[in-house]
Amino acid sequence: MATPAQWLAGARPRTFPAAVSPVLAGTAVAAHLDGAVAWRAALALVVSLALQVAVNYANDYSDGVRGTDDDRVGPMRLVGSGAAQPAAVKRAAFLAFGVAGVAGVVLAATTAWWLVAVGLVCVVAAWAYTGGSRPYGYLGLGEVMVFVFFGLVAVVGTTYVQTRTWEEAAVAAAVGVGALACAILVVNNLRDIPTDTVAGKRTLAVRLGDRRTRLFYLLLVLVAAAAVVAVAATTTWWGLVGLGFLVVAAPGVRTVLDGATGRDLVPALQTTGLAQLAWAALVAVPLLSGLG
Question: Model pTM greater than 0.90?
Answer without folding.
Answer: yes
